[in-house]
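User: My collaborator sent over this chain with a note saying "see what the structure looks like." That's all I know about it. Can you take a look?
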Amino acid sequence: MSQSGGALKRLLAILLPLAQSFSAGPSDQSLSLPDWLGNYPKSSGVTATASRLTLDVFYNSPAETDAIVAHYQAQMRAAGVKFTVTFDGIGNTISASSSDKSCTVRISDGETGSRVRVSCAPKSEAAVSQRTFAAAEVFQPSAIAPEPQLKAGPPMPENGSAVAEVKADLAAIQAEITESEKEDAKYTGGLTKALTGSTIAILHQTEAILEQKLVSLKAGARPVIVSAATNRTLAEVEEQIAMNQSKIQRQEVEAARYSGGLVYAMSLATLETLRQTQAMLEQRRVSLKYAF
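Assistant: Without extra context I'll predict from the sequence alone. Here is the result:
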């Protein structure tokens, strides 16, 4: 058989299992939280987003991080689930895997107690991705000599000023989350409750972006921070944030004029819509500023 024919057979051997995995298709139903990932008791501010490919649950707890880590470890041991616990200087991360799901639990300090984020994904998705990239090594051209391996040097020093800037943005977002959760606790249902819950979820996503950036900087990554003075899009977003903040302040005054009835309800809904817009603009600003 020719060399091209052999290469074709190897390519088919890689692509056929991948095609079969996609043809089978995941269920259209949203993912559900495994029994061994129950929330810590007396948690508050619980928000969740789920699809057939991802599941994210956020909540606050008055307990210390060590107690929450022990809570999840006990559940996983009882269910026979393998897991690992790591600490990156900011919080604890528990990685666990069952027969059908890969999940992580992120536990970090909050203003009072701890903040928890639970994320899950179908295990088949990760398996397909890993199998594809591992098999691709077969097609590396043999005529090209491998690049010489560099010896690992000492860890790069911490990017002090960049880390401080990310921490400041992270603290601001966490303060907004706390205020939004206080506002959310005032309502038991309806449109305003739904809007506040959505705003909290957006803020949590921004928080996760900043935490990821902080970890990379502490690991020695080169700081990339964009300035509004040199980036027109970032400058426009910051201008929109300032304008929307003015609208929020005016709407807060308007809503305070009423104590009940339809007009009061509509005023609150308008206010929460503006706050949701502000959370989206803040996330856009963070993404542009740190080049995500």
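A starting point for your reply to your collaborator: The chain has two domains: 35-130, 160-289.
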